[in-house]
């Protein structure tokens, strides 16, 4: 038996013990994980700084802070969510009492992503714990310092039959996927998502896929240009653009394009100074492969701002490209870096027609003071989620389910949605014995007309 087979077997045994069915046990584990994170905050700051010079503020805001808020929300609501939910009965089964039981799947595999290597590894785990599962965590090897720290702080504090971090590269993931699992949660690219889903299909294992895509920001002629530029710049260049819901490109109305570009450049300079390489608030690209892929895009269109880069430091300055078309290489794949193409439009219907023919993105952002335009875009285009007059911020509300559609993902999580994602909804009907409707039993002589009346 291999190490991975042994780990999976231990998790199945732990789950069969029934310990995780107890909501008080789940609550203790969530609070324990929060304490462990709090005790290791400095080590977490250091690991993310070593992986890609992530500023401490961004680490707290986009990694630790989100996890703390999620744990608080889960622990505050878990007992209510875990109780059987009574639902209405149906007339053909009168009298009956009906309930929905939320039960854990069993053993979950959570495969994390490198761009937010702490939060995207642990946030789904919180839902798995809350729902009562045992969980194997496979963090991304592309953020090795964070992966190593996760293994250190979790594996020494939790029973490996309950919660276990398994480090490794693609072959480790493949080995885990070949084992009998009860749920798989993956965050990453659409390409790898297809591989995960294919492997899961071999054993009919349910999956949640949090993928990506080209998420647009649409700026119409009524938008408040100052706040629009500031919020797009923030959402795009936090974490050096390595965010799955960052604006991948901007569609701006031709009448406000020049004003928008000028203001966008000003806001970026306010954020990071005239030389962002010296800014302590600007992250780096994760590795050389991603750096070289991004660098090729700098030749697309015209350089309005930015461009400086340094392979040794894995640095690419915040960059704005204009005169971009859908035929350019940068528009053929998700950018996932600090380069922002700008496209212009004259008619909103043209934008909608174009985007309806593109893969459905994970996010979409609308900047407009026109309520009709806002609703027209929301009702005409399909996407995972988004904001009106902001970017990225919807991830900070645990009452909003987060997830994609089509190429951008399957399923969602955050808050109650996380609990539901890692739970099977088991329906139970309880019947009394003091009444037994004779219409349902043969012989059916004359019963059909009464059945029709009852149903209609």
Q: Which of globular, elongated, flat, extended, rod-shaped describes the shape?
A: globular
Query: Got a strand count?
Result: 18
Please mark out the parts with pLDDT under 50 across 5 or more consecutive residues, or reply none.
Answer: none
Strand sequence of the main sheet, in spatial order? 10-13-14-9-8-15-16
* Fraction of residues in helix: 40-55%
- What oligomeric assembly is this protein in? single chain
Most strands sheet? 7 strands, mixed
Q: What is the distance, rounded to the nearest whole angstrom, between the alpha carbons of the first and last residues?
A: 60 Å
Radius of gyration: 25 Å
Q: What fraction strand? A: 15-25%
By DSSP (H or I, 4+ residues per run), the number of helices equals: 15
Structural class, please? alpha/beta
Layout of strands and helices, then pairs:
Elements: H1 3-16, H2 23-39, H3 41-52, H4 56-82, E1 85-87, E2 96-104, E3 107-111, H5 119-131, E4 134-138, H6 144-155, E5 163-165, H7 170-177, E6 183-187, H8 190-202, E7 207-210, E8 216-219, H9 225-237, E9 249-253, H10 257-272, H11 288-297, E10 302-305, E11 309-310, E12 315-316, E13 319-322, E14 339-345, H12 348-356, E15 363-367, H13 371-380, E16 385-388, E17 409-410, H14 416-421, E18 423-431, H15 447-455
Parallel strand pairs: 3-4, 3-6, 4-5, 6-7, 8-9, 8-15, 9-14, 13-14, 15-16
Antiparallel strand pairs: 1-2, 2-18, 7-17, 10-13, 11-12
Helix pairs in contact: 2-4, 2-5, 3-4, 3-6, 4-5, 9-10
């Amino acid at each position: 038996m291999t190490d991975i087979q042994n780990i999976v077997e231990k998790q199945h045994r732990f789950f069969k013990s029934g310990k995780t069915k107890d909501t008080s046990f789940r609550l203790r584990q969530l609070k324990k994980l929060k304490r462990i994170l709090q005790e290791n905050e400095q080590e977490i700051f250091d690991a993310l700084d070593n992986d890609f010079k992530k500023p401490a503020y961004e680490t707290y805001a986009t990694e630790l802070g989100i996890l703390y808020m999620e744990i608080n929300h889960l622990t505050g609501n878990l007992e209510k969510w875990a109780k059987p939910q009574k639902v209405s009965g149906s007339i053909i089964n009168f009298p009956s009492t009906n309930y929905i039981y939320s039960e854990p799947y069993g053993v979950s595999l959570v495969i994390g992503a490198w761009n937010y290597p702490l939060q995207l590894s642990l946030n789904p785990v919180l839902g798995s714990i809350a729902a009562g599962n045992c969980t194997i965590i496979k963090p991304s090897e592309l953020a090795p310092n964070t992966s190593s720290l996760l293994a250190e702080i979790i594996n020494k504090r939790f029973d490996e039959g309950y919660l276990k971090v398994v480090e490794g590269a693609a072959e480790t993931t493949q080995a885990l996927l070949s084992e009998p699992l009860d749920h798989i949660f993956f965050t990453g690219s659409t390409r790898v998502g297809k591989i995960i889903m294919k492997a899961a299909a071999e054993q009919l294992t349910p999956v949640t896929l949090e993928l990506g895509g080209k998420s647009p920001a649409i700026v119409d002629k009524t938008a408040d240009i100052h706040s629009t530029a500031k919020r797009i710049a923030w959402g795009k260049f936090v974490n050096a653009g390595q965010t799955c819901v960052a604006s991948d490109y901007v569609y701006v109305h031709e009448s406000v394009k020049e004003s928008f570009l000028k203001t966008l450049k000003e806001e970026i300079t306010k954020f990071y100074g005239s030389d962002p390489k010296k800014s302590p608030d600007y992250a780096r690209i994760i590795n050389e492969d991603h750096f070289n892929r991004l660098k090729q895009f700098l030749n697309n269109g015209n350089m309005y701002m930015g461009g400086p880069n340094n392979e040794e430091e894995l640095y690419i300055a915040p960059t704005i490209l204009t005169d971009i078309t859908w035929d350019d290489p940068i528009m053929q794949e998700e950018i996932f870096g600090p380069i922002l193409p700008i496209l212009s439009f004259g008619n909103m219907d043209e934008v909608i027609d174009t985007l309806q023919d593109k893969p459905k993105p994970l996010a979409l952002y609308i900047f407009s003071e026109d309520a009709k335009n806002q609703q027209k875009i929301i009702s005409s285009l399909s996407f995972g989620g988004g904001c009106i007059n902001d970017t990225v911020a919807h991830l900070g509300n645990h009452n909003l389910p987060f997830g994609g559609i089509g190429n951008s993902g399957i399923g969602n999580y955050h808050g109650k949605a996380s609990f539901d994602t890692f739970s099977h909804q088991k329906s139970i009907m309880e019947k009394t014995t003091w009444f037994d409707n004779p219409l349902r039993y043969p012989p059916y002589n004359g019963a059909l007309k009464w059945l029709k009346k009852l149903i209609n």
